[in-house]
Amino acid sequence: MSLAALIRERRIVVTVGPGGVGKTTTAAALGLQAACQGRRALVLTIDPALRLADALGLPGLPPGEIKELPVAALQAAGTPARAPLGVGMLDTGLAWQRTIERLVPDVERRGRMLGHPFFRRMQADLAGAREYAALEELHHLHVRGGYELIVLDTPPTVAGVDFLQAPDRILDVLDQDGYRWLLRPALLGGKLGLRVLNFSGGYAVRTLSRFTGLDFLRELASFVDLFSELLEGFRARAAAMKATLRSEVTAFVLVTAADPNLAQESRYLYRRLQSWEVRPGTVVVNRMTPDPGEPPPEGWSARAGRALQAEGLAAAPATLLAAERSQELLRVMHRRDFAQLEVLRELLDHCCDLVPVPHLGQEVCDLAWLEQLRRRLFEPPSGGFR
Ligand SMILES: Nc1ncnc2c1ncn2[C@@H]1O[C@H](COP(=O)(O)OP(=O)(O)OP(=O)(O)O)[C@@H](O)[C@H]1O
Ligand SMILES: [Mg+2]
């Protein structure tokens, strides 16, 4: 299925890929494409580059809020938008809070949970917590409705698709430490010492052990007490999230670059997606070196030097030579990038379309440049980008 068809037909699109390749920018361009197709779309970004964040009006937006870019503003930037575009920045702390709010109706109990030192620590540093919170928010917005498409950006982790396992991992953590929950009565009774808890350093135990000065056992017992009830809720939500992400509702777009250093990482991410029973719908190969055109004819720099002289302008021969060399360098990079495209196609088992996107020559710093990127993604020159 083409990228345009994915954006037209799916309800959720997730961009994944190695760090710094353009996941966030691509996510925004995909959302813009939906707006151009007349679909109400929402782009949920994670740490967008400052200038893109500015362009989308994100700075100053309260965490967790969604801002609507009206059709008129999108059109003023030269886009053929037919629907507004929602944008927001994921706030993982807030996403956790909202999850707890949805799962725990009792206000007093909820307050104790959110204020629990272990919970606060968990949302800050538990591997996968950030990703889990992102999925929670995505799932909530999807189920609530209101958007025809939600584009989710993912965090710059090496294993960018690890967030797919986030629901399982969170459950694992709660469960792994769960066997200690059996010890709860003993812990509450203070009959067991720290020695017992040292037999295997589960996450909860390791985390709580950092709380020097606190009554370690008491904190563990109170955590267990507060969270044991939540496990069922977490489990049900995790199952629903996984089903949605694996279904036809969702498409994954793997964003990468034609950099040989990223080839193996791209393959790894692709394999991870596979192991998770999903296939990327499209692979965007971003920031490819564009073709600098025909090489200058033999003796070009000498002739250019003479032409400049005739105009009363001077250019050192070395400067002209350097210009010629830089053109040559671009040609080499262009050839290398396109050769790498083939390598990638092989490495990714010819799984889907590869969409090469040129380096735009500058950062995507405003809506007009985002529109340029959108066009490169969806309206490649006839005959394709070479
Ligand atoms: N096709 C392009 N041409 C030129 N610049 C681009 C292109 N695509 C992205 N960029 C620029 O590359 C930089 C990195 O992009 P972006 O922040 O989207 O990457 P990312 O994969 O989300 O990074 P991270 O992994 O840190 O989240 C930005 O400055 C963006 O403007
Ligand atoms: Mg990013």
Give the topology, please.
Elements: H1 3-9, E1 12-16, H2 23-36, E2 41-45, H3 50-55, E3 66-69, H4 71-76, E4 85-89, H5 92-103, H6 107-115, H7 117-125, H8 129-144, E5 149-152, H9 166-176, H10 178-181, H11 184-189, H12 194-197, H13 203-208, H14 216-227, H15 230-246, E6 250-257, H16 260-275, E7 280-288, H17 300-310, H18 317-347, E8 353-358, H19 367-378
Parallel strand pairs: 1-5, 1-6, 2-4, 2-5, 6-7, 7-8
Antiparallel strand pairs: 3-4
Helix pairs in contact: 2-19, 5-8, 9-15, 16-18, 17-18
The structure holds adenosine-5'-triphosphate and magnesium ion (MG).
Describe the structure.
Strands 3-4-2-5-1-6-7-8 form an eight-stranded mixed β-sheet, with helices on both faces. It has 386 residues and is an alpha/beta fold. Helices cover 54% and strands 12% of the residues. The protein has a domain at 3-163 and 234-292 and 349-378: 3-Layer(aba) Sandwich (Rossmann fold), CATH 3.40.50. The protein has helices at residues 3-9, 23-36, 50-55, 71-76, 92-103, 107-115, 117-125, 129-144, 166-176, 178-181, 184-189, 194-197, 203-208, 216-227, 230-246, 260-275, 300-310, 317-347, 367-378, and strands at residues 12-16, 41-45, 66-69, 85-89, 149-152, 250-257, 280-288, 353-358. It is elongated, with a radius of gyration of 26 Å. Helix 2 (23-36) crosses helix 19, helix 5 packs across helix 8 (129-144) and helix 16 (260-275) packs parallel to helix 18 (317-347). The two termini are 21 Å apart. Helix 16 links the parallel strand 6 and strand 7 (280-288). It contains 19 helices and eight strands.
